[in-house]
Design brief:
Number of strands of chain A: 0
Helix content of chain A: over 70%
Number of helices of chain A: 7
Structural class of chain A: mainly alpha
Radius of gyration of chain B: 19 Å
Number of domains of chain A: 1
Structural class of chain B: mainly alpha
Order of helices and strands of chain B: HHH
Shape of chain B: elongated
Oligomer: heterodimer
Strand content of chain B: under 5%
Largest interface: A-B, 64 and 38 residues
Chain lengths: ~180, ~60
């Protein structure tokens, strides 16, 4: 969970998130361009099947076993100058290279970008991803009881993930239909 | 109430947003995007990104 050090540096953190997520979105977009010669119908069906399978994995509580790096951003970043540290913290988190993912949603989005998206959708999804992650330092109470918010998030993260995953699958369907 | 006329309990009472609320709003936007045909075919991708980003907000 974000510490107060990073909350005070939300702009740098958000900028880092945006840069990292755009980089990942661009890389996924390149993969999307590479598979674009495959028949559109095949790619669409594959995206729906994979999306529904990943949502199923989410609902039965196995999403933590899905492929992910499972490595936190290094604590040494905290000792760097605050803005540089927040920027790097956000960047590494935004790329998805250093984070835990308790939800299937990022995989659904990533596979969607590769199979039925491309470069521009990849960049847009990346920008959206950064926006979604920036919501936490923006919404988490600043002065009052931030630990209570953290407790609520931990308690209800399964429902948050389930709602977002359902929305991701619906959005993939919207793109196809 | 303290001797200075200051109520610490009230001072700490700030507006907080329950973590589920943004997910519901974003999910609602996703549902609208899925149901309503949009002129801009790129809009769903931004919504997809928002949903996937917020879905892992509980992790570092």
């Amino acid at each position: 969970m974000l510490s107060s050090v990073w909350r005070r540096r939300t702009i740098w953190f958000g900028l880092g998130l945006l840069t990292g997520a755009l980089l990942t979105g661009m890389i996924l977009g390149v993969f999307g361009e590479l598979v674009s010669p495959l028949p559109s119908e095949l790619r669409s069906r594959l995206a729906v099947v994979v999306g529904i399978l990943l949502a199923f994995v989410e609902f039965i509580g196995w999403s933590e076993h899905l492929p992910q790096r499972r490595q936190l951003v290094q604590a040494t970043i905290i000792s760097r100058p605050p803005s540089a540290g927040a920027l790097q913290f956000g960047f590494e988190m935004g790329t998805g290279y250093r984070t835990y993912s308790p939800s299937s949603s990022p995989l659904i989005a990533g596979i969607g970008v590769i199979l039925i998206g491309g470069m521009v959708p990849g960049l847009l999804a990346g920008a959206g991803f950064a926006g979604g992650r920036t919501l936490v330092p923006l919404l988490r109470p600043v002065g009052a009881r931030p630990t209570r918010w953290d407790d609520q998030m931990l308690r209800w993260s399964w429902l948050v993930s389930a709602i977002c995953t359902t929305g991701c699958v619906a959005t993939i369907l919207a793109v196809i239909l | 109430m303290s001797s200075y006329g200051h109520n610490p309990a009230k001072a700490k009472a700030t507006l907080t947003v329950h973590p589920i609320l943004p997910a519901l709003i974003l999910g609602g936007i996703g549902a609208i995007v899925a149901v309503v045909p949009l002129e801009n075919a790129l809009a769903p991708w931004a919504v997809l990104g928002l949903l996937s980003g917020y879905s892992i907000s509980g992790s570092t």
